[in-house]
Structures
1.
Amino acid sequence: MNRIESVFSRLKSQDKTALIPFITAGDPDSATTVALMHQLTQSKVDLIELGVPFSDPMADGPTIQRSSERALKHHISLKDVFAMVAEFRKTDQDTPVVLMGYANPIEAMGYGNFVEAASHSGVDGILVVDYPPEESAEWVRCLNEKEISPIFLLSPTTSESRIKHVAELAKGYVYYVSLKGVTGASHLDLQDVSNKLSQLRAHIKIPIGVGFGIRDGQTARSIAERADAVVIGSRIVEEIEHSRAADLLANVGTLVESLRHAIDTKSGPSSDKECEI
Amino acid sequence: MKIYDLPDKCGHFGPYGGTFVAETLISALDELRRQYEYYRGDAEFQTEFFRELKHYVGRPSPIYHARRWSDHLGGAQILLKREDLNHTGAHKINNTVGQALLARRMEKSRIIAETGAGQHGVASATVAARYGMECVVYMGSEDVRRQATNVYRMKLLGATVIPVDSGSRTLKDALNEAMRDWVTNVGNTYYIIGTVAGPHPYPMMVRDFQAVIGNEAKQQMQEEYGRQPDALIACVGGGSNAIGLFYPYIGEENVRMIGVEAAGKGVDTQKHAATLVTGRPGVLHGNRTYLIQDENGQIIETHSISAGLDYPGVGPEHAWLKDCGRAEYVAATDDEALAAFHALCRFEGIMPALESSHALAYAAKLAPTLRKDQLLLVNLSGRGDKDMATVAQQSGISL
């Protein structure tokens, strides 16, 4: 069992929902990113999504665009991202790390070199925003060779036949984009999410994470009642953007702990009384 | 050459093209592809398209023999396909008319567009006014500054121009922002991409609408000269005017096809936009194609005196035509383009767009190496009124 599977299997036995934070590698700088990753695990996240900065982040809203620009000021490359993951792995062998980014830096490096370096540094999975399943046959084959999980996005408009296609390719978990628009937008319909998740679960047998539009504990808790994982990106990146260097780790820690608490106090069929106490 | 039938059904031109977008855009693209595939073969749609091109755009555009300039250069005869005479002053309107007609049939009430020089924005604002649609144009804030006249033209036509402050604040960033708008408002919004780039079906669809240029030229050449030209020359930014001229000629193997990119301050400097001449394949804006990028795969800021060529990618069909050797790609510098701009003004009384001046610059280089009975057909893709401030500035004059 790999790290991602172990985490979800443990959570399932505890009837808990995974908390997955997103931060951009190199924002505000490389050393802080590694410290932030450790801070996140201390604040009890289950898996870390690490953004690979790109000059043209087409699917991201202004908050994550700006974080990418801050990282690129230091010319953060994929090699630097792998170095950060390797540094993190020196003292953390358990927390899965999933990279999230755009195709071109990978194209520039080449699939073979990429999977070699990713595997060597301790990366567990990767989501490439602009590699939809149709264009991913060779890519997924390369990831599978090194046992790196290909993570895919699903959206409110994904058709049944494409859900099946993703079900065949995806490993680790799938990432359901809970609303139309870009990251950081804020108009989430919980009923829609519930309906779509039941449709997805007919085909998708691995855990389903939900992200886009989750900005506070209350929404996180509601999502946690429906999904296997809650992904929070823009809200955390905002905290990084607005914190002074000296307070950054503590501020992010406080925010993530409050989200953790919210998610863990979800009401569910077996646990709704306990969490009132 | 065997019959050319690219792209394949998934939008691939050999290894290029495709649909490299986030999941959130896939269903919108699927819907667009289905609708376009239907209307592409629909006689009523095609009839309306050609009626609009004739009565609204003013087609066919003539082929003009630039005799004095050819004599001066002392070699091949230079013929100009006069897309500058179209309504709104450039080839861009061919495509926006086609896409607006499609948007109407898809019952979209709002159109959005990205623009660099502002020509595509103006062409989009124009058709939005013509068909009574809301229009929002995204434009890099740097381009808004450089192309103030076109910004005002769009506003006069009723469009909202949104300056984009992210990234390099130019065309590529405007395209990113338009994509973000589309993802958010896909229910009522149609995105008119202005060039043969972007995800499938855009490169094919924009090519089909622009192919009127080459189809007309083929007929006009036969009627007026009794033969086809020895070479076609067109400027290439994203590459829509070039593919419009080239596409109907792909099977005519005796006709050379030459695309001219922007060499800016020189292809050996960091300040150019010569994607096919200097770039490497990668993925940007929904398709795999040649890109100007650094060793880490980050897109590099480009430079050209002409905002319309200032783009780090290029249409995937050009990437394929380059690799398979059917078309040649060269580059002309800012200075060479400016010289050609002035030459055409003085020898022919025609003020070309700075974009088109790149094609003219290469024609001026090639013509003297050829015989006087050889014919070069240059796509004069737009007129230069919009560029007067830029040209004046180069001569140290402020208007």
2.
Amino acid sequence: MSFGHRYDVIVIGAGHNGLICAAYLAKAGRRVLVLERRHVLGGAAVSEELYPGFTFSVASYVVSLFRPHIIRDLDLARHGYHVIPMDCAFQPLPQGRGLARWSDPDRTRREVAHFSRHDAEVYPEFSLAMTRMGLLAKAVIDRAPPVLGSLRPSNVRAWARLGRAYRHLGPHLQHVAQKLFTMSAADFLDLWFESPILKGPLAASGIIGTFKGVRTPGTAYVLLHHYMGEIDGAFRSWGFSRGGTGGVSMACARAACAYGAEIRTEASVSKVLVQGGRARGVVLDNGDDFEAEVIVSNLDPRRTLEGLVGAPHLPSRLTEQLRRYKYDGSSGKVNLALDGVPTFACRPSVGDHMRGDIVIAPDVDYLERAYDEAKYGTWSSRPFINAVIPSLTDPSVAPPGKHILSCFVQYAPYHLNQGTWQEERDRFGDAVVDTLASYMPDLKDRILFRQVLTPWDMEQQFGLTEGNIFHGELSLEQLFFQRPVPGMAHYRTPIASLFLCGSGTHPGGGIMGASGELAAKTILGHPT
Amino acid sequence: MVGTPFYSRQLRLCQSMRWKLWSGFYAVDSYLLEHDLEYFALRSAAGLIDVSPLCKYLVRGHDSAALLSHIMVRNIAKLGVGRVAYTCWCDDAGKVIGDGTVMRRDEHEFLVTTTDPCFSWLCRFLYGYSARVHDVTDDLAALALQGPYARDILVSVSGTAIGDMRYFAARDVLVAGRPIWVSRTGYTGDLGYELWIPRADALDVWDALLTAGQSYALRPAGLMALDMCRIEAGYILKHVEYHSALHALIEARKSSPYEIGLGWTVQLDRSPFVGQRALQLEARTRSPWRLAGLDIDWSETEALYRRHGLPPALSTEPWRTSIPVYRDRARQHQVGYATSGTWSPLLKKNIALATLRTNCAVPGTRLQIAMQVEHERHAVTATVHSPRFFDPARKTSVAI
């Protein structure tokens, strides 16, 4: 076999994880080539001008979990990493003024007290407990997971480290942790709060991106995601990337290039060449081929192993496991360009409550009903919506006076029991706009442009299998030393010199960057 | 104490009730409960800062250029009409009394602005010059419109093409039908303008800017956000990074321009000016102190907090207390002191401005800065950096 070009490492896919992996490898002196199928970089963390003058965070839309040490290691601030924190999570309601939760605890307490004085005072206690849990989670997500059963010293040390972090919680919080990892989001919140209205948006954060309901056991731990975010070195909530989430990817790309990596767009890999159980190179759709010592795939496990490698090269047990690895995309995205700021009926002024997270989750039952429809194969007629208007904070994404409304929508099951997503797309988009319009009566008159992304569209456009935004369900049986499947949790695959660096590996999805970093360190033989 | 001409508007907007006293005026420290949102507006969109408490003097007369050249370390006679110069002024011993800007309005008229009163100092040198100094502090309101979208807002509100206005240029502009002076200057280290507004027109201009600014995510910003920006930009502040030679209680508190990062403003080889001989001497030798930036190591900071089982919890507020800087971790050999600092949310760095022994002020030098974590005092590595941590191309760029 002879190849056109030779590299030390080829990274397939320029999502943020692929770019971070490439940057770490290039920084360590490896000759790295990144191949991206699309004309833009970023994978699902991408900014695109879908309508003249409007730059959309087409898929992922907020940043929270991005690992601060990656920003430092790769000098991403110098390369344009610029995330603006949000101050508020606003939940409009059909009656009253809605509920806004602010960074300032007393301001939040006063808001929550309208619904429950008890909850208002418990809320800071809950936040404190979750922050302590976040510290435990940090010990988990910043390192490659230890495996079960191995007595290698490094593995034993890794378990011991986790044990220490757990012990540090103390008996009370250990008990809370056990509940957090086993209960449903709604049940867990019932331990703390009485108001179904406050529990609505809190529970919603337990189901984002998963095909589970707020009363499904195992959803509580996802609540942690809201307390693990580290913006500005401190544990803080969510933020907008300036210029859209593609800004994060572009900073990673610039860092990778600054360290000497080469990035090619519109270079779709059709095959990973395997010889003697070892990945030797890749072939593109256009027939070009490249050789490399190491191949890293930013694609999800199924697309990498079944799509690019092929079942004949894989152990049959693995193909079986891969088939059972759950994707079950459950969410959609509706991106709107608006000719002005829409008005919330319940809080009409254009204020800071609109500059953060807007959550359409009036109460817990609303969310469970949305799930009820989805679990039987139809999209939610009244869905959970997480909306943001980034243009109120970042004027670079829309022309002056115009705005972007970006809506993450759940549930939109990939597998519909009737019809196809091509047929259902517009009706789904209408349901989202109708739902929003019940809170923002002037919304429909302001829409200049609408993009509806169903799970099927996300699969087509971003290569997300079954439209799962996290490269596979973030449920406990698919996490930690079991992500993506047991025995493959260390970024390695059964094919020697083929590695995974996408969200289908530990610690999973969100614009976190940890998968890319830990994969690179594994390849380099650095301690993880 | 009095409010500035914008006080009535600020009272309504200042949710946090956090005010500061600045030269006898109430000045908003932070409008919002979370001041860093104002910082982010300044760095991502635009911020509007009331800088009316700045002292403002009009120097008029045939000899005004010669007078100011005599007082300032910079040769103001060479300043073109419609240009602004940043400079400082010294006593005879070459120790800094104040710093500020000088705008040349026309051949014989200059506007001097500075943080502290200096009317008497300016007047002290009038003898023999055909010039007069007018204190216009209370007649002119001043706003700083700063941030990447400052230009767009100013264009939209004035309808004037100011895209070609160069860094440190000044011109007359109509805003809301009111003639004001605009200079391409500021204290944030970013693209920005300062607006000098006749007092009677102040509120109209404020309203016009905030209305036009809505389309650009403009926020009124307080002094805390401004402080974060100026530390990132490496801009010194009187009473913090240095003390005026006129008010220093002891000699050791006085500084020369070379010691506070203003050596570049000193133009020695020209007609005599106040402090010239002392500065000539100092330029030939080595000043004992230097202004430097410090990049305080985050990993070590995090480790100190981890020892207590805590996440790193730095205040998001900028600080301005003197903190000792050492050569060694045992904190035996002090080599200077940090004067102000901030967590830089944009650069993701814990940064400070410091006065260091000249031999320790070389960028890259690793020093130790005192840090208190959970009631315990420690030292953390701080790497010497140029004070200019943040310096985007747009600060000086021209858009035509």
3.
Amino acid sequence: MKVFINGETKEIAEQFNLLELLREFSLPSERIAIELNKEVVRKKDWESIAIKDADRIEIVHFVGGG
Amino acid sequence: MFTLAGKTFNSRLIIGTGKYRSFEEMQAAHKASGAEMVTVAVNRVPLDRATESFLDYLSPEMQILPNTAGCYDAEHACRTARLAREALETDWIKLEVIGDKITLLPDNEQTLEAARILVKEGFIVLPYFTDDLIMAKKLLDAGCAAVMPLAAPIGSGMGVQNPSNLRIMREQLPEATIIVDAGVGVPSDAAIAMELGADAILMNTAIAEAKDSAQMATAMRFAVQAGRLGYLSGRMPKRLYASASSPLEGAIK
């Protein structure tokens, strides 16, 4: 199925939950946040929420800024 | 001492984390500045490469103030604030809604709309906005913890362009916390903003782009202190003509 992660179209083979998605892309799970279809998903819910086809996911971290 | 949303800071200087040539240089500047709060930006994680954990380079004692930089409407700013809160477990947010890519001037209307939403959601909202008294009043009425008028456009280093606006804001809003955000270029700019009665100053580029950023951070630290003391001391009146400091009577003839 196809999902949109940080504006990029990605083909996801399995029905990952959000935590598995982070692992798939070798992303850290600390001090990041995930938004699923414009709603923030609490960290405790990452494992229980399965990704669906055409989901729009934003994964953010922190960078230098003013 | 400076209290903001119930938290006390010894330093009235708040600084950014952007544009430094290296993390080491940023750390040295942060230390030299004496600042106790730093801003950070929320950004998409790159999917194609590993990234260093930028936050590891910040002193654990620093209060982290995430911003909503890069947002051009209230909705994006609110979403960014919520993501920052989830990731950092902080309710503090520097609200920044930009209206134009060239000037990076704030969209005050969208800023106010976002402020109202975020205050309702329990955020401690610190909005960046145009140095306008009426807008400041509306933001405070919306429940913002402070107002953060610009001195000049972000990263311009132009210094306080409208000193009378800041003075009016200080005089008309004596109880409000006013943090001058953006536009400071040199220590004298910081001192002027503080002399006009600002409670604190937020700056990034003036330190990060200095040839010696740690030394500039020290200079800014002193300038903020000097300006604050100057404001508290009460300036002498301006006069069009001279007023002799030495007695005119009794000079030899």
4.
Amino acid sequence: MENPTDRKYTKEHEWIKIDGNIATVGITDFAQDQLTDVVFVELPEVGKQIEQNGNLCVVESVKSVSDIFSPVSGEIVEVNKALENSPALINNDPFESGWIVKLKVRNEIESAQLMTPEEYNKFLTEIE
Amino acid sequence: MDYTPNTDEDRESMLREIGVQGIMDLFKDIPENLIQKSALRIPDQLSEFELIRELEKISIKNKKPLSFLGGGNYNHHIPSTVNAIISRGEFSTSYTPYQPEISQGTLQAIFEYQSMICELTGMDVSNASMYDGATSLAEAMILASKIKGKKQVLVSQALNPFYREVLETYARASEIKIIKIDIVDGLTSDFETEGSSAIIVQNPNFFGLIENLEEIRKKAADILLISSTTEPLSWAMLKPFSEYDVDIVTAEGQSFGNPMNFGGPGLGIIATKQAYLRQIPGRLAGETVDIHGNRGFALTLCTREQHIRREKATSNICTNEGLCALAAAVYLATYGRNLGRLAQLNNQLAVYFTCKLSQIEGVDLVFDKPFFNEFVIRIRKDLLSKLSDIEIGISLENYYPNLEGCYLVCCTEMTSKEDIDRVIDEITQ
Amino acid sequence: MKLLNEKSKQGRSSFNVGLLDIQTNIPDDLQRTELNLPELPEVEVVRHYTNLSNSNFGVDNGLYPLGSCTMKYNPKINEIAANISQFNLHPLSHHNRGTLEIIYQLQQYLCEITGMHAFSTQPAAGAHGELTGIMIMKAWFEKRGEQRTKVIIPDSCHGTNPASVSLCRFEPVHVKSSSSGGVDLEDLRQKMSRDVVGIMITNPNTLGIFDENIQEITQTIHDYGGLCYLDGANMNPMLGVVKPGDFGIDIMHLNLHKTFSTPHGGGGPGSGPVGVVKDLEPFLPNPRISMKKEKLEFEQSEDSIGRVHSFYGNFGILLRAYSYIRSIGASGLRNIAENAVLNANYMKEKLKKHYHLPYDRICQHELVIDDSLMPNGVTTNDIAKRLMDFGFHPPTIYFPLIVKGAMLIEPTETETKENLDAFVDAMKAIKEEAENEPEKLTKAPLNASIGRLDIVRAARKPKLTWFT
């Protein structure tokens, strides 16, 4: 699966897509592949304030637990309720219907510092 | 005896294969100064018959007089089916069922055990077992403080004193504060909930009395209600905990098919509501299917556990009391609905005993309240001295100074009417 | 197979109970109205569980080389011993001299075997012993008025170690393993400070390696006033050969259900006695059984961490372990260590011709191989499942975490050379299948009573009772 060009990436394999002051966050195809079948997503509460690199949520596969970190600071305005019953969305469609949360961005500069798709692709080839 | 089957010849050929001269070459990583030069100071080996002779010699130093001891460990009959099943090596010599395809026996048995515990308690989820009644209660205390985010719990003093000691030990380590709730006339008294995560009560309580769970639940509206039971046979007669909206049920399940064994192994029971499913400690067996679509069972939600979540696990428990849970399952399946009648019989015997005792001057029933199969008496010293070859009950004054001269007396189906009559005769003679 | 409730039919229970003609004292509104336990005739109960047992695999069925679990033969005489009716005593009975003698003697034997000064047999399992040990460390520093927060744990540890540490509100700090498989001394020294409570170390470790630097490790901890805890899960290869007390261990637990042959029971009950050096004896759980003027009695200590079990621990397991130690004696204990190590090294030498051995050196009771040489994407999990078809229980897989695709193999001392050879032959055959017929592996087990189970489904839609 290709990494979409309309968003930014982190070294922890999260993606962030900015639309106005709202950022949608998920994990990349590489991340879901490493996790294997996702069985549970512990979603945060709407309204929670979160710092950049703060703990956003926990994603579980059968045999592992991964913390997902927030690429930017902000307030959680929406969570992907569909994941409660269909955590597999993260595996099947990580960049679209498998999104995890939407944040109201507090500091726009933070996202500017994240990796571009090209930089992330290069990063992936380095770690593999 | 010797259970190492390699012959000298085997050993020689194996050492050759490895490419070393002697066995001690295999211990070369151990610094020379640490290697033991002399044999352990432990007696020489015994044959089976010598060992049995030796053990019997020691065992007869124990005496087993007529006994009415309960208080957390009970002398119940164990149906013949139980030992026939749990002594099968396929069950008893297997490990935790991490490989479900060759552990379906253990897994289905756990699944059925979980189901029967839920039937008895009315709760949504039971785990596969904990160590014993006290430690499952301690885990419930820790669980409650995580759920509520408050490091303080209320503990009824009508809880078994040993359990209170175990709670103190765990609370100290986990930095939880325990507030003691007094007893009034044998039952848990009033309490304030502010700042606490939960209240812990025992039902039937340590004195055998049935607590007013409905009242306690009302007072504990904004905190969790945790119950502990040491005599779960009472469950077959009493309303299930779900009817009082209890949040976490814990118990000692020894009564269900496990011998007294000087107090261990027991069977730690813990059951809770669906809402706390992902916080529950220990193992869970769940239903699933195999690649052909056949029903099967596997350990599930393992990410809660220490082997995956490590320092963030819901508990550090690994080995539990699997075979004791199996014994409980066979026990419950053997009795079936007749478990209700067994509970009634236990209660009837205790009622019979109190009726007889209350006619004797110098013996008082201390609490005049509904009980299951245990009750507290106060007995005059001169009468007590007549019972020197009977264990009439657990002396309570060490644990409750105001209950001087009081004993906790227990009846089970192993107590016959004749046993009770014998006590009455000896006192009145 | 059908579930108990699916086999149930109202009125079928045959286990009758006669009642007395006595009114209950329990008001109706406290009584339950329904009890939906399954109803089966006794014969069907026995058949149900007998048939279930047929789809289970225990040590009694065959080789069970589950690493770090020491699945040795569980002598049947232990069960006879445990069922001597005179030992089935109420815990608060005062007529307990025989029982106390067993516990006391066992404590003495465990001290002699480990070089510890005193033992408590209260902890009910290994992890329970760990927790007890960390509680003792906490109480020790509280008593000294020192506030320490960190516990050093090697990265090859059992998962219970960090979990036990965090239950006591300490922070686990991991130290790396060196390229030869022991603790990286440099990393250890860097992480040391006066904030360190101590170390929790497994030795021989979970790679099966006896850390040749063990004395330097414990000395380093002691230099900073810390305490050394040994996870004694791997005691088997040290019996009669080396005593942990001699290499600087202050506290340790033993797993009687591993080293001392008590059966695992499908996950328990076990027993995890904790031993300590003299200075720590007052901190052991209350009560302890000690000898006073040639009389055994319960003893309370003011500095104790308190009680950790409803009564006195798993006496039924202690009795089995006592029987085992008495039946094999001192020479038998040493024999265990020697043969456990011989069997593991023999297997290692034969397996390394076919599988990758990440640490190619002498091992103790267990060895680690991995799946890095497997062709056609065959994984450790596939190998494990296929081993079932050959009549073996698989080894511990994907552990220790520091080896990718690890298989941790512990043959134990009770296996014959022929059994070891048969296992190696199976592993060799599996390697060949991976090359020629990989689908046999990815679909394995092919001959078990059930096919490979969907554990993802079990976790996504948890169904934990027959009600839901």
